């Protein structure tokens, strides 16, 4: 088991196929038991990224809708969501 923090640029690869998608997907293999942390703001950022891709035509609207729905489900059930507070920032 490992612990990962995924920023939005990494996390979006789970919902839109691009370079790095296979590696990100591998983190979620059930037999590994990894814990994946994301910032609360990722909820907005991922939806915006998927929507932006749909508007630009790089993915179909139906695929964007499915990706958004899957992300919303995963956001509630799969990820450890953390707020990025001033205290956390000051620990760096």
Write structural notes for this entry.
The protein is mainly alpha-helical and 92 residues long. The chain has a single domain, classed as 3-Layer(aba) Sandwich (Rossmann fold). The chain contains 5 helices and 3 strands. The protein has helices at residues 8-11, 21-26, 42-56, 61-77, 86-90; strands spanning 3-5, 35-39, 80-82. A 3-stranded parallel β-sheet has the order 1-2-3, with no helix packed on it. Helix 3 (42-56) runs antiparallel to helix 4. The mean pLDDT is 94.
Secondary structure blueprint with pairings:
Layout: E1 3-5, H1 8-11, H2 21-26, E2 35-39, H3 42-56, H4 61-77, E3 80-82, H5 86-90
Parallel strand pairs: 1-2, 2-3
CATH superfamily: 5'-nuclease
Give the C-alpha Rg. 14 Å
Report on the biggest sheet.
3 strands, parallel
Provide the CATH architecture: 3-Layer(aba) Sandwich
What number of structural domains do the residues give?
A: 1
Descriptive keywords:
three-stranded parallel sheet
Q: Gist?
A:
The protein is mainly α and about 90 residues long. Helices cover about 50% and strands about 10% of the residues. The protein has a single domain, classed as 3-Layer(aba) Sandwich (Rossmann fold).
């Amino acid at each position: 088991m490992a612990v990962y923090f995924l920023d939005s640029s990494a996390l979006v690869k789970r919902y839109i196929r691009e370079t790095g998608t296979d590696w990100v997907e591998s983190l979620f293999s059930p037999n590994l038991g990894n814990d994946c942390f994301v910032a609360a703001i990722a909820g907005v950022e991922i939806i915006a990224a998927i929507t932006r891709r749909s508007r630009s035509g790089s993915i179909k609207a139906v695929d964007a809708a499915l990706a958004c729905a899957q992300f919303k489900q995963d956001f509630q059930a799969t990820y450890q969501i953390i707020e990025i507070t001033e205290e956390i920032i000051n620990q760096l």
